[in-house]
Amino acid sequence: MSDIPGGGFESLQFDPPFVREAHGTRSLHFTYGELQSQMQTGSPWHLEVDYTRTMMGFLLFNNNPAVVGMIGLGGGSLVKFCYQHLVHARVMVAEINPHVIALRDTFQIPPDNERLQVIACDGARWVRDLPSTTDVLMVDGFDARGQSAQLCSQAFYDSCVQALSPRGLLVVNLHRDHLDYPLLLERINRSFNGATLETLAEEKSNGIIFAFKDATVLQHPNSLKKSLQHLDPQARLQLTPELALILWQMKNPHLP
What we know:
Elements: E1 2-3, E2 18-22, E3 25-31, E4 34-40, H1 50-55, E5 67-71, H2 77-85, E6 90-95, H3 98-101, E7 116-120, H4 123-129, E8 134-139, E9 142-143, E10 146-147, H5 154-163, E11 164-175, H6 181-191, E12 196-200, E13 206-212, H7 215-219, H8 224-227, H9 233-251
Parallel strand pairs: 1-7, 5-6, 5-8, 6-7, 8-11
Antiparallel strand pairs: 2-3, 3-4, 9-10, 11-13, 12-13
Helix pairs in contact: 4-5, 5-6
């Protein structure tokens, strides 16, 4: 773990999460009513929560990214999956809450090395300082009060565009029942000139937004077979239903 200049959050107060274990799973919570992350203790690379599998839909547009950036560590589900299966990718994760980072070993997140770096910083500031080399940027930054305001502003989404490589894409997890959901979707559309794809996770409580720096990338998704070709059989089996659903939604945008 390392800091970067411009953090400036050392004096802030952060909600400490807590961990629950039951039936072979370990989960991260800020409140009893909200699940932040969950893993199978015997299979820590498995994507246990449905919306995380939907976020991996970026493989339909880039199945072998060189640089994957993430905001929000949580229990590290997406971090571990990308680290395990996208072996040519460098994974960088920005997490502002030191209590979350302190649970890194509890959720079997690998230590920092040449392919993985967990950075203790404000994700919005971190994105603003990134070079334009990030192939996939995933935003899943929630606390006890929901998604942080600095991760929802027009300026933030503009910074995401600048941080992406020429054919890069942004993946954002939003709560569909939140009052600001239409506003946030509008902001993402504005920053990306309408080159966005709104999809629903299996349980339909999460809206996953894919936004593209180059609109032509959205227009030409990979086949399902090509999207999954770099994954092992178990990972392909896990993601096939999610990616197939996204392709179906793209072909049938007006159907529920």
